[in-house]
Amino acid sequence: MAASPAPPTTVRRNPPRRARPPPTPLRSAKPKPTVSTLLDEAAAAPAAADAPSISPPPPTPTPASAAALSSSSSSQDERLKVYLRIRPLPGPERQRCKPSSRLPNPNPKAKEQARKPSKQQDGAGAGAGVCLVATGANSVALTVPQSKLVDLKRGRTEVFDGFSAVLPPESSQHDIFTEVMNPLVDEFLGGKSGLLVAMGPTGSGKTHTVFGTPRNPGIVPLTLQKIFNITDESDGGNQPTRFFSLSMFEILCEGKGERILDLLSDAADLVLQQSTSTTIKGLKEVAISNSMDAESLVSHGMLKRSTAATNANSESSRSQCIITIRAIPKNNDLQSEHQISGSVLTIADLAGAERKKCTGNKGSRLLESNFINNTSMVFGLCLRALLDHQKKQKKTLEKHFKNSLLTRYLRDYLEGRKRMTLILNVKPGDGDYSDTSFLLRQASPYMKIRYTSLDDSSDLVTQKRSNASLICQENRKKRKVHKPEVLTAKGKDTIDKPDDIEVSERDAFLNLELQRVSRSEQIMKNLFRTLWAVSKQKLLESESAAKRTRELLIDKDIQIIELKKELNDLKSRSHEKFPIAADTPVERSDAVTVSQAALSSVSQSDQTERGSSDAALDAVHIVAQVVDKEPGSSGSCSEQIPAHDAGVAHATSHLDHPSDRSFAELHILPCMKSEQASLSQFSVCGKKAPVEQSEEALSNNIKVEDIQHNADIEAMKHHDCPSFSQQAISAVVDVSSNQPFLELQGMGAVQQNPEEPVCESDLNDHGDSGDMLPHVLNERESQMEASVVLSKDDREAEGVRDKKEDLCASRPCKTKKTTSRRLRPVAGMMLKEFSGTELDAAADTKKQGGGGEAGAGRSDKLIRLLKSRPESIMNRRS
Ligand SMILES: Nc1ncnc2c1ncn2[C@@H]1O[C@H](COP(=O)(O)OP(=O)(O)OP(=O)(O)O)[C@@H](O)[C@H]1O
């Protein structure tokens, strides 16, 4: 016994409140048939012939039912319009479709076979049969395919009712336009904004519905044609009372985000701005003046749209495409503007929801699928939230629109402030049951959304902004001297811009330029200020350095001048103090000659009368007299150093006889005492002026150095035992200086420590100290006593050295030269004193006698002469 099959179950969704006639094709509104339309109709004919077998069977369409449809549509004006378009099955699938599943079969067996799932259907999947049929003008029946039945006893047919219109597969593009778009265009031209959104799964024919093909144009081309046809007819060949603009952009996936891309320009980085109204900054709006140009513009934009091939659609849209047609009044009349324009017609072609197993997308395609599905879901949530809000007014409107760019852009529509129309595209195949069922279940409640309080005031604000944007774009074009192709194609005076808007736009541009220029000027000012400050600082530093250098040079010049002055003063003082020093070279040579002659005579006597003290005594007397007679001319005294080196030292080297010593004590010491007295005056005078003192110290130092040099030589010669001649020389040299005591001590110190410097403090301390003289003299006496006990060998060696010194005195030695020059005064005096017959006679006596007595007599004469002559010399000098 076979079990009886379960009765079919029908579920009604959105049942109409009253019975309505089934949907009837609007034959009256159908335009002239084209080739593509005929092809579409031919393709849809088999499907249309297959009426849904699920109860209730659709009634036969009649003209009366069409009228009823119109009346019902008018009664639902305040509701959200939802149209359902059933796409015809493709050719192969159409062939596989069984008529039993499409048409009511009176045969119960055949009906039973139709309920049983067949292997072919299971294996064929989507293309095995049709799951969706139009059951009326506003309802469809969705049958669960056999392959998807879980419980055969449960109902497997769903009736979705309440659509504004169900457009069967055989409906042409013109039918769709007439049924769906005509009301929107009329409202748009009447000044009301409207939105048409095409929804549905991938491959359901949304793009085909919206754009169509060149041979079978869709809603957009037909809308443009109608707009300009009506405008031309209403204007009657006169100037148009308004103009239109068109913008076209897409929202596409970018990584994990989304962005807006202008399809009519290459502008990048479009920004969605939402304040009082929603606008897209940077979006290009092209003024359109005729349908042909507008259609070509749309076609051009479609070429830029992102598409890709998937398993479900060979040319699947990967973005949400939005076209906006804006009506702008020509007259700037606020009232007419509000009445006539203030309208924006928006058409959105959404990318269809995709299933991964159907599309086979991977990688970036899969990311696009996620983006598309997410946007579709958010869009549906917004509508659902609006419906819930309308059902329960206390329930706040959920702001799902924030979750995607599309819903943010369409916020006014999704929050019920503007009218919106939905067209659901579905595929009727069994394999598309899931997508179709999902869409119908999702969109069925939207039919209950009402527009109770439309806010058209926002249209005015939006329109003003749009007008300003359009004018701005036109001005930019004018500045670039580029005329848009759309405008130049038909006429030149298609757009007239309000003067005040143009002026304000120009002012805004000038303000921006002014701000930019002022900012650049400020930057340059700051830069130059900084450079000027740095340069000024460098200049000041250079000037200060130059000033310091100049001051240094001036100081140096002053020092040079002072030094010159001091030198001149020194010279003048030297001339004043030592006037004899300026004698002629002849005198100098004479002096040298005389001194040499005198000393050579002494040396000759020394040679002939070795051991005699006469010659030494003569020399000592000469020195003593010179010192005695020249008390104020210390310079001249000091100049006797070489002479004493040559002669006196030689003479003193023979003071080994007690008689000689007593003679020296008798004659030399008084002379030295007198010299001490005279030199003490010099030391006192040396304290008078610092400059003079320093100069004198300088000159003395120089002399001391020279003397030290000589003393060093002597010390090297007599380093073992300084002879009396050295002591005498030192004494004489010291006497010749300006600081006699100092020089005396210094010379003593030189012999003890030649390198010990001479200090002025010593001069000050001892310059006028009379106590030093006995001490020094005592030292001299002791040294003389020591030198007296020299051995005979030493005396012979000293004699040899004296001969050498005599030879050196005749050579052009520097020291000899200097000393010979300074010997001039005494030498001159001696020359004069020794001139005459005495010397000649003495010489003759020496030549003739050659004995010791003759030499002794000559010495006696010389001594007598020296003793007797000083008075005459002093008288002559004075
Ligand atoms: N009513 C129709 N008559 C004839 N062909 C149609 C119809 N609807 C769609 N098609 C064809 O189906 C294919 C897919 O259509 P379409 O690209 O418009 O789908 P879609 O919904 O836009 O898909 P997607 O969301 O992936 O972009 C196209 O080749 C189109 O020509």
Automatic annotation (TrEMBL):
<dbReference type="Pfam" id="PF00225">
    <property type="entry name" value="Kinesin"/>
</dbReference>
<dbReference type="GO" id="GO:0016887">
    <property type="term" value="F:ATP hydrolysis activity"/>
</dbReference>
<keyword id="KW-0505">Motor protein</keyword>
<dbReference type="InterPro" id="IPR027417">
    <property type="entry name" value="P-loop_NTPase"/>
</dbReference>
<keyword id="KW-0493">Microtubule</keyword>
<dbReference type="GO" id="GO:0005737">
    <property type="term" value="C:cytoplasm"/>
</dbReference>
<feature type="region of interest" description="Disordered">
    <location>
        <begin position="835"/>
        <end position="878"/>
    </location>
</feature>
<dbReference type="GO" id="GO:0005634">
    <property type="term" value="C:nucleus"/>
</dbReference>
<dbReference type="GO" id="GO:0008017">
    <property type="term" value="F:microtubule binding"/>
</dbReference>
<feature type="compositionally biased region" description="Low complexity">
    <location>
        <begin position="63"/>
        <end position="75"/>
    </location>
</feature>
<dbReference type="GO" id="GO:0005524">
    <property type="term" value="F:ATP binding"/>
</dbReference>
<dbReference type="InterPro" id="IPR001752">
    <property type="entry name" value="Kinesin_motor_dom"/>
</dbReference>
<dbReference type="InterPro" id="IPR036961">
    <property type="entry name" value="Kinesin_motor_dom_sf"/>
</dbReference>
<keyword id="KW-0067">ATP-binding</keyword>
<feature type="compositionally biased region" description="Low complexity">
    <location>
        <begin position="42"/>
        <end position="53"/>
    </location>
</feature>
<dbReference type="InterPro" id="IPR027640">
    <property type="entry name" value="Kinesin-like_fam"/>
</dbReference>
<feature type="binding site">
    <location>
        <begin position="200"/>
        <end position="207"/>
    </location>
    <ligand>
        <name>ATP</name>
    </ligand>
</feature>
<feature type="region of interest" description="Disordered">
    <location>
        <begin position="1"/>
        <end position="126"/>
    </location>
</feature>
<dbReference type="GO" id="GO:0007018">
    <property type="term" value="P:microtubule-based movement"/>
</dbReference>
<keyword id="KW-0547">Nucleotide-binding</keyword>
<feature type="domain" description="Kinesin motor">
    <location>
        <begin position="79"/>
        <end position="449"/>
    </location>
</feature>
<dbReference type="GO" id="GO:0003777">
    <property type="term" value="F:microtubule motor activity"/>
</dbReference>
<comment type="similarity">
    <text>Belongs to the TRAFAC class myosin-kinesin ATPase superfamily. Kinesin family.</text>
</comment>
<dbReference type="GO" id="GO:0005871">
    <property type="term" value="C:kinesin complex"/>
</dbReference>
<dbReference type="GO" id="GO:0005874">
    <property type="term" value="C:microtubule"/>
</dbReference>
<protein>
    <recommendedName>
        <fullName>Kinesin motor domain-containing protein</fullName>
    </recommendedName>
</protein>
